[in-house]
Amino acid sequence: MALNVLVVDDSAVMRAIVIKTLHLSGVALGQIYEAKDGEEALRVLDENWVDLALIDINMPVLDGMDLIDRVRQNPETSDLSIIVVSTESSETRIENVQRKGVAFVHKPFTPETLRQAILRATGVIDERQDSKSPVSGGGFDF
Question: Most buried one in 49, 64, 81, 114, CB count within 10 A?
Answer without folding.
Answer: 64
